[in-house]
């Protein structure tokens, strides 16, 4: 079985959204165009409570872009984004979500962020995505979505370490920072992810 995991394709990550990824809107139709190549389509949603630790607004005297340390884990502070059930958390309206068999929600715990759709940033709590893929007898997983150097990277890295044959379709991802994306692609390649 061959699965596609669409990472955090949500309004807040598109131009005009709370945490906009430049040209993030340009991948929506490209993703629509490849859906028929897969046996199973899964989407992830960044799904934060209002008091989430990653929001700069929840910390006194901190700004977006500052880094705090919480229980030994560095946390970048972001604008409020992808608040549960908000319009910013929705899929883009031109995204064909009709073929999605499962939505994996992440970042729901107020006290820790979750860039990966498999585990939180402490590698503590699992979302159940590994079990879901194994039950469905998935061996090959392709990843697309936003943002390349955060949630796409960490999700794909966990996928390869969970033992799945893992690819990232680079033309169906966009990132926040071009140089960080280059570094992210190098790291993914080094860890055995196939970039296509
Ligand atoms: C993401 C930053 C904060 C992502 C999510 O989806 O890449 N980035 N939350
Ligand atoms: Zn987030």
List keywords for this structure.
196 residues, alpha/beta, Rossmann fold, 6-stranded parallel sheet, 4 helices, 8 strands, 21% helix, 24% strand, binds pyrazine-2-carboxylic acid, binds zinc ion
Overview of the molecule:
21% of the residues lie in helices and 24% in strands. It is globular. By secondary structure, it is α/β, with parallel strands linked by helices. Strand 3 and strand 4 form a beta hairpin. The longest helix is centred in the C-terminal third of the chain and has 14 residues, at 148-161. It has one domain: Rossmann fold (3-Layer(aba) Sandwich), CATH 3.40.50. Zinc ion binds next to loops. Zinc ion binds at residues 46, 48, 54, 81-82, 107.
CATH superfamily: Isochorismatase-like
Could you tell me the CATH topology label. Rossmann fold
- Heteromolecules bound: pyrazine-2-carboxylic acid, zinc ion
Shape: globular
Mind describing the biggest β-sheet?
Answer: 6 strands, parallel
* CA(first)-CA(last) distance: 19 Å
Average of the residue pLDDT scores: 98
The CATH architecture assignment turns out to be: 3-Layer(aba) Sandwich
Q: How many extended strands?
A: 8
Computed CA radius of gyration, to the nearest angstrom: 16 Å
Low-confidence parts lasting 5 or more residues at pLDDT below 50? none
Q: Numbering strands along the chain, what is their spatial order in the largest sheet?
A: 5-2-1-6-7-8
Order of helix and strand elements from N to C terminus: EHEEEEHEHEHE
Q: What percent strand?
A: 15-25%
Approximately how much helix is present in the residues?
Answer: 10-25%
Structurally, the number of domains stands at 1
Structural class: alpha/beta
Query: What count of helical segments does DSSP give?
Result: 4
CATH class: Alpha Beta
